[in-house]
Amino acid sequence: MRVLIDESLPRQLARELSGCEGRTVQQQGWSSLENGELLRRAAEHGFLVFLTADQGIEYQQNLAGLAVGVVIIRAVSNRMEHLRPLVGAMIEAIAAVRKGEVVRVPSDLSRRPPD
User: How many angstroms separate the CA atoms of 80 and 61, rounded?
Assistant: First the structure.
């Protein structure tokens, strides 16, 4: 699964997402793009998911018609030490999100105790 990682997240996160082809906005040469154009380009270039820490993206963009899903990470900070414990939940969210949909990590499901 092709995942575009927002520039607000550390580049090393791409290596942590096993089973995903993670590319950063910087690697794509898209650092100067606004979110709307960034999401359009992501879809045009075959990315299925946009991974971000931007909590307001779903309120700033009309995501319903997009050909990418958006996974929003909620963590203490964007540092790897705070993101690493969420990697498993990120991978699950990436696998579950649909085009035009937003999934948050951690979600209420990821906080439930195991059965």
Answer: 27
